[in-house]
Amino acid sequence: MADGSGHPEIASAPWALWGHSGGAYWSLRMACLFPDRTVAVVARSNGLKEHAAELPTSVPVIFIYGVREKEEFKGIVDSINETFPASRARGALAAMAVDPESSHDCRHSRLLAIPYLDACLSMRLGPDGLRNVDPASGVFTGTAGGDVREYDPQLQDDESMSWLPDARVAKALAEYVSTGRVTDTTPPDHAPTELAAHANGDGSVEPTWKARADVDSGIKTFNVYRDGELLGSYAGDAAYHDGAFQSGNYGDDPLPDALYQSNSDYTWEPPAMRFVDRGLTPGETYSYAVSTVNWSDLESARSAPLTYAHA
What we know:
- By secondary structure, the protein is of the alpha+beta class.
- Helix content is 21%, strand content 26%.
- The chain has 2 domains: 2-179, Rossmann fold; 193-309, Immunoglobulin-like (Sandwich).
- The protein has helices spanning 2-5, 22-33, 69-72, 74-89, 110-124, 167-179; strands spanning 15-20, 38-44, 61-66, 94-99, 125-126, 129-130, 139-142, 148-150, 161-164, 193-199, 205-210, 219-226, 229-234, 285-294, 306-309.
- A hairpin with a 5-residue loop joins strand 10 and strand 11 (205-210).
């Protein structure tokens, strides 16, 4: 298959695995079968059950489940609560986090999974393949978070402690198990692009643009600037979710709730990225720029400026 695709590197490419429910079980089993290719695993809402003893101690793994799963999906929680301590007792590079808000859904777990996988990828990817993990390069924390300890060999097989790749991830876990979210500390990586503008028949000017997603926390609004001063914020043409551009659907796309109604015949189109500027003076020249603001209210760099001569 790799040769037929024209990409022979697929046959040996490393995997960072992230799965929910049955996908979590599959990801863990793949780590058991192919530990030399598995960078790390995020297992949301499942453990390994009868295969717990096969989990490789060399692969970083984090188990995440929702507190309400204890009643609604007891078998899954039992599986995790068997797999995690059993693997830690063997010195596995394993961690566990309990979401205080969710049941058998992913909710905001990506806000923890992304920094976890980023840290593991940085730790393990090398020019000649996967690096072995030195447990001493990580930290330990209690599963309730907040109690971060430097590496200590006596904690290597402590069933009550989670192993994490660095202190930043430990801080994220502590916030996640407390609030169900992780505050984004980085602004959006990319400024909006393809800024353009056109005049409307009522004398207003309409800047338009394109933007890339902010994967860590999502796009909340766009800030529109005219001549270097903030003109206003744009959150979409409809009130998607409390005046925010991207919805609260625990993903990265600005989908309205109606799309998730099974009996809905709602026809959805992506919201336009535009802003209507009114009350301009004919004959004057203006400069526009746009930035992206994420859900932690951090702002990207501004787009390249657009000079517009209003006729």
